[in-house]
Design brief:
Radius of gyration: 26 Å
Number of domains: 3
Helix content: under 10%
Oligomer: single chain
Strand order of the largest sheet: 9-10-12-16-14
Structural class: mainly beta
CATH class of the largest domain: Mainly Beta
Strand content: over 45%
Distance between the termini: 79 Å
């Protein structure tokens, strides 16, 4: 009897202590000097699970759209290996390569960080090819600052380059910036043929919003506030659930939606129809509905801000068929604080008749 209890205790303790552990062959790769005309260059970071439980790569994040990750999607058993392929698009990106890739897994070391470095040798081109956007007397290589995705605690930066083709020196500055966006122009004044680096830093926590967000920031030249030029800043803000403790995850909310496809059915053109979608919290803490987005202005929603443990609440969805005809397929996105369902996409189907 004592022997059986000892064996049982051994397996219980072993099971509780079993953990995956990710070990990379290397965490930095130098591409060296790469010609801009070579397109995309890639490297496979290989790793081994040296732990005692299956390793799962949950997500791999990059700081910009120029870097694309691919990785082993299936669980990696103890002793087995996997890979994370990092591809960098060198086209239109002359200069230094220095990008960080963040790997989220169920390893105790998570998040792990990889780095790619190198130098892109530019091809010869006329400034008008590189700086395609005109703002007054200067030109920019881009007027859209796209941060891709970021976590709510991050403060990433991206850079836009300005070029002065004209004979007169130009001072670049920004006005009426929101508190969560900072800009740094170096140098602030550029003479003919010179370039300036416009560094844009985004404080996600200061934005205090979730999902896809857009800002328009005002750039002025030579302190002339009567004329401004808009730079579009976009990002998608998400919560980093890998920072949650085991206790937080164990006591997390759990959202349940009673219908994944909202069937409006047949509706006459110009009519409106309202549907109730029930949201239930089957978790152990309060469920927050952080944001509801729809893919079409035909859809309006009214959702609860929060749902208590064990409770249900209705989200009202109204579909307006004005100006439309035929079959309609739309989507509604819910953003929540449920770690397993932080983003839920519902489909809406309708058939508009005359």
């Amino acid at each position: 009897m004592k022997y059986k209890l000892s064996v049982l205790l051994f397996f219980i303790v072993f099971g509780l202590s079993a953990q995956p552990k990710i070990i990379f062959d290397k965490t930095q790769h130098d591409f060296g000097r790469v010609g801009e005309g070579e397109g995309t260059t890639s490297h496979d970071f290989t790793f081994k699970n040296t732990g005692t439980a299956p390793l799962i790569i949950q997500d791999v994040r990059t700081t910009c759209g120029c870097t694309t990750p691919e990785w082993t999607k299936q669980p990696i058993n103890p002793g087995a290996t996997g890979y994370i392929k990092v591809s960098y698009d060198v086209k239109g990106r002359p200069g230094a390569i220095d990008k960080t890739i963040t790997v989220h897994s169920n390893s105790s070391s998570s998040p792990d960080h990889l780095r790619i470095v190198g130098e892109v040798i530019p091809v010869e081109r006329h400034p008008s090819e590189t700086f395609r956007y005109t703002a007054g007397t200067i030109r920019l290589d881009d007027m859209h600052v796209s941060f891709n995705r970021m976590y709510s605690h991050e403060k990433p930066s991206l850079t836009v380059t300005a070029y002065n083709p004209g004979p007169d020196a130009v001072k670049i500055s920004f006005v009426n910036l929101p508190a969560y966006i900072k800009t740094e122009v170096t140098p602030a004044t550029i003479k003919q043929g010179e370039k300036a680096s416009i560094k844009v830093t985004y404080d996600a926590a200061g934005k205090n919003e979730w999902g896809f967000v857009t800002d328009r920031i005002s750039m002025i030249l030579n302190d002339n506030k009567t004329k401004d030029y808009k730079l579009i800043v976009t990002t998608t803000i998400e919560e980093d659930f890998s920072r949650w403790t085991a206790a937080q995850l164990q006591n997390a909310p759990a959202v349940f939606v009673d219908q994944q496809v909202i069937e409006i059915g047949k509706i006459r053109k110009g009519d409106k129809k309202t549907v109730q979608v029930k949201l239930t919290n089957k978790g152990k803490s309060k469920l927050l509905i952080r944001k509801v987005e729809s893919s079409s202005p035909l859809i309006t929603t009214k959702a609860p801000k929060e749902v208590n443990v064990g409770a249900s609440s209705d989200m009202t969805v109204m579909f307006d068929s004005a100006g439309q005809s035929g079959e309609q397929n739309k989507s509604i996105t819910l953003i929540t604080n449920d770690p397993k369902n932080a983003k839920i996409i519902l489909r809406l189907k309708a058939e508009i008749t005359e």
